[in-house]
Every structure is written in C-alpha cells, then in structure tokens.
C-alpha cells in the first residue's frame, strides 16, 4: 500500500469517527498498526480537517454569534434549532463556548505537562470503548428520565459549559473515550435535555479546541525541527479526506438523532472493545 493511500484511509477513518460517539482516537490508533504510525501533528491536523467540516455546517450559527457582538439580531434561520436568538442570548452562548474552551485549554496543557495519559496500546483503548459504551446507555437513560420530568431544555447553563470543557480533558487522557461522546452526554446529564442542543454545543466547542491543538502541535514540530521530516503531501490528502467525510458524517448524525437515541453507537463500542480484547494480545 502506498503512503498516500494509507493517509487517505486514515483521513476517511478520522472523518467518519471524529463526531460519531465511537472514538476517533481509538480507531486511528488501531488503524495505524496496519497503515503505519503517524506523527502527532498528522493526527491532530486531520482532526482539524474534521472540525473544518463543522465550521461549514454551523457557519450560520457562528455568524449569528459574530453579528450579536455588534448588536444585531440573529434571526431564526441562523440557528440550527430554528430559534430566534437576540444579541444578548447569542453573546451569552459565545461566552459559554469560550469558558468551556478555557477549561479545556488549561486542563489539557496541565495534564500534558504532567504526563497524565494512558498508553496508546490496544488494551486500555478496548476497555475505554467497552466502559464508555456501557456509560452511554446508562447516561442516556438518566437523561431521558430527566427530560420526561422537566421537558425538552435547549439552553446551556454555565455549569454545563464548564463540565463540557472538563469532559474534553478527560477524553484526552483516556484514548478510546470519544470526545464527542463525553461532551454530548455530560451536557445531557447536566441539564440540556435536548439531544440536538447538547450535540450542537459539543460540536461547536470542538472548533477552537481542535484548531488550538493543531496550532500547538505545529509550533512544537517547528521548534523541534520536525517540519522538514513531515510528509506534507500525505497530510494534505488526509486533511481533505477527513473534512469531506466528516461533513457527510455530521449531516447524517444530526438527522439521525432527531428520531433515534445513541444506543446503536453504544452497542458498537462494546462489541468492538470486546472483539479487540479477545482478538489481539494485550501487549500489542
């Protein structure tokens, strides 16, 4: 297999799995054992490609928040939930996104300096997939009961925003957890009972998070003199493939959650995790 083809496949895997709650990191780490190990910059950059897809999908929402800062109304068509958003409400939403990102940035840098991260071997990834799948089922049951009691709530509280930021840090420490799963279900459990609203916030907070991570890795690579050793052609192919497939995957997921729960993803996680534990030796 050529290097460009391997990069293409990794980009497609990243694009499909980044926003589905099945762990893109876990899938990439496993895939790299057959398609070849890649640099940290490569892995973060293709995640940024997937995030670019979210920017394109939510550009109206982002534009609505931007115009709110100059005092203009963001009409209903600028909100994926179809809700007319006055400037004060749009600014409040943007501040909460910023707060969630700040928690992630501070926490992420701290755990990176302290070296708090599980090894990227099959066994911890498989267990994270299994335990995460079980947690998803339980969390969705609890969220459904809360929604039945309180009705559908689309608002994002400050506590929810801060917990979502912390969930991103936890997902980074435990490969296989899934950033999207952690953030979506934390938002649901924290009081945002609407799956669409919780998913939207989880996806939007990923935009500054992943772009910042890409910039951080790019700067680290440049300082270490690794820019010349990076295969930029392969990275470009993977970035583009990730962006295109993520766009399709997110569009599909947003339609899917309108009438379905996340149970199917939880079952997939458990089956994949068990298969990995049974199929591959723990040391590999």
Describe the structure.
By secondary structure, the chain is mainly alpha-helical. The protein is built from eleven helices and no strands. It has helices at residues 3-17, 24-35, 40-57, 59-68, 87-114, 122-150, 158-173, 179-189, 195-223, 232-256, 263-279. Helix 8 (179-189) packs across helix 9. The protein is globular, with a radius of gyration of 19 Å. The protein starts with a helix and ends in a 5-residue tail after the last helix.
Low-confidence stretches: none
Q: Summarize model confidence as the mean pLDDT.
A: 85
Shape assignment: globular
Q: What is the H/E string?
A: HHHHHHHHHHH
**N-to-C terminal Cα separation, in Å?**
22 Å
Count of individual beta strands:
0
Question: What proportion strand?
Answer: under 5%
Number of helices: 11
Helical coverage, percent range: over 70%
Give a short summary of the structure.
With 284 residues, this protein is mainly alpha-helical. Helices cover 74% and strands 0% of the residues.
Strand-helix topology:
Elements: H1 3-17, H2 24-35, H3 40-57, H4 59-68, H5 87-114, H6 122-150, H7 158-173, H8 179-189, H9 195-223, H10 232-256, H11 263-279
Features:
single chain, about 280 residues, mainly alpha, 11 helices
């Amino acid at each position: 297999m050529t290097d460009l083809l391997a990069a293409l496949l990794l980009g497609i895997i990243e694009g499909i799995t980044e926003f589905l709650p099945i762990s893109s990191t876990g899938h990439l780490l496993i895939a790299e054992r057959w398609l070849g190990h890649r640099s940290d910059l490569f892995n973060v950059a293709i995640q940024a490609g997937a995030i670019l897809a979210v920017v394109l999908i939510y550009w109206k929402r982002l534009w609505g928040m931007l115009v709110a800062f100059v005092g203009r109304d963001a009409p209903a068509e600028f909100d994926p939930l179809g809700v007319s958003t006055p400037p004060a409400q749009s600014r409040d939403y943007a501040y909460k996104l910023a707060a969630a990102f700040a928690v992630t940035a501070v926490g992420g840098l701290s755990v990176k300096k302290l070296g708090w991260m599980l090894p990227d071997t099959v066994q911890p990834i498989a267990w994270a997939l299994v335990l995460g799948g079980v947690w998803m089922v339980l969390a969705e049951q609890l969220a459904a009961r809360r929604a039945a009691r309180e009705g559908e709530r689309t608002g994002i509280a400050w506590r929810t925003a801060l917990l979502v930021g912390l969930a991103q840090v936890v997902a980074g420490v435990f490969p296989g957890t899934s950033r999207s799963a952690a953030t979506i279900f934390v938002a649901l459990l924290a009081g945002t009972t609407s799956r669409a609203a919780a998913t939207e916030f989880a996806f939007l907070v990923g935009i500054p998070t992943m772009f910042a991570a890409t910039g951080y890795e790019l700067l680290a690579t440049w300082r270490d003199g690794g820019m010349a050793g990076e295969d930029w052609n392969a990275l470009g192919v993977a970035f583009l493939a990730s962006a295109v497939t993520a766009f399709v995957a997110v569009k599909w997921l947003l339609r899917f959650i309108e009438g379905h729960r996340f149970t199917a993803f939880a079952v997939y996680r458990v089956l994949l995790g068990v298969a990995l534990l049974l199929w591959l030796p723990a040391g590999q």
